[in-house]
């Protein structure tokens, strides 16, 4: 039990919460960066390698495109199907190989990224499929390369939906980071486990819940704000802006 009449109790509580919050933000931030770096191109390839997609015939072979699409789809479904606690244990050898240990906040970034990447890739896939196919066809008719279409048409047009998907993804990462804390991963989950569960401190549990709620709501509000901003900008200018963007595309060269 914790003695709240102890003069050091409240100062220790603040120190513990600050350390846990810092570790949680550290884990979530780096895991989110890795998730975007890997998940964004993965989602683009999922859409692009479908029949009629931009990368449907890699190396001039439709069979290769179909195989790549099936493999990526399987990997994404597999990653989303495995419960996080099992995934975290299963990838311990890989985590140790990457960061040299499987204990601590840095080690927790590996399983957090692995569980978030398939989720975000599926979000990107859904967002890209909502883009008007006419924009892609128009850019293609202007001589844009496939990567130019991705960079200047698909990603900008799907950005509002992808931002909302990113907000959902970061919420999931924060939830999983709390689970990591129960197995020596640090963060607010560790605070809740060591002080709330093992020492029966209701104050620590309530404080952790409040902090996590604030973090999740703040990040969701930021993502929603920018999603609405980009969506409003697109609706204000409509297709005229898209045409203007495409006009900035340079012709395809042999190197592309």
Automatic annotation (TrEMBL):
Residues 21-221 form the ABC transmembrane type-1 domain. Keywords: Cell membrane, Membrane, Transmembrane, Transmembrane helix, Transport. It is found in: Cell membrane. GO terms for cellular component: plasma membrane. Signal peptide: none annotated. The chain crosses the membrane at residues 25-47, 67-92, 98-121, 161-183, 203-223. This is Methionine ABC transporter permease. It comes from Conyzicola nivalis. The gene is metI.
